[in-house]
Amino acid sequence: MSWDSYIDNLIAQSKDATGESHASRACIIGLDGGAAWTTNSHANALQIKDDERVTIARCFKSKDFNTFMQSGVWCEGLKYQFLRSEDDVLVLAKKKEKGSITLQSSKTAIVITFTPDSKQQGFTNKAVGVIADYLESMNM
Predict the structure, then answer these.
(1) Mean pLDDT of all residues belonging to the chain
(2) For 11-64, what is each residue's pLDDT tens digit?
(3) Which of 26, 33, 67, 119 is the most buried (most CB within 10 A)?
(4) 23 vs 48: CA distance, rounded Å
(5) Within 13 Å of residue 128, how many CA atoms lie on the same side as its CB?
(6) SS3 assignment, position 46
(7) pLDDT recorded at residue 28
(8) Sheet holding 78-86: strands in order across?
(9) What is this structure's pTM?
C-alpha cells in the first residue's frame, strides 16, 4: 500500500479560508523503529534521514522528549528548536528564518509536516491532527 496520497491529503487539510496551504512537505514514519511509510519520491515528501527517523520514533515510543529538549529535533539535516510537547503525542519545533515542524503520533505511526516560515503553523497543526486522528480511528 502506498501512503503517499496522505501527503497530498495533509497539505490539502492545511488550507486556510482563502484556500492557501500552509504545510509544504510531509511524511509518515512508523512508531516502532521509524521505518518510512511514505516514499521520498513524492514531490512534497519531507526527506528525513534514517538516523533522524529512528531518533524521532524512539522519543515518541518512549514518550520521553528530553532528547528533543537537549539536542533539538533533527529533520532533513537541520536542527529545529524544540518548542513544546502536548499530551505525549504532539511535538512542535521551529528553526528561525526557515520554518517549523509539527509531529504527531497515532497508535503505530508518526505524522511529520513542515511549515515554511512565511506560513502559519496553526493550520498545519490542525491538518496533522486530522491525519493522526484518522489513523488512530483505524487502529493504526
Answers:
(1) 95
(2) 999 999 999 999 999 999 999 999 999 999 999 999 999 999 999 999 999 999
(3) 26
(4) 16
(5) 30
(6) coil
(7) 97
(8) 25-30, 109-116, 99-105, 90-95, 78-86, 73-75
(9) 0.95
- The angle at the Cα of 86, spanning 81 to 105, to the nearest 5 degrees, equals 90
Ramachandran region, residue 88 (left: φ > 0; alpha: ψ -120 to 50; beta: rest): left
Dihedral sign from CA coordinates of 123, 128, 129, 135: positive
DSSP three-state, residue 75: strand
Q: What is the pLDDT of residue 2?
A: 73
- Provide the residue type at 139 as one letter: N
16: CB partners within 8 A, 6+ apart: 22, 120, 123
Contact predicate 13/127, CB 8 Å: yes
For residues 127 and 55, the answer to whether their CB atoms sit within 8 Å is no
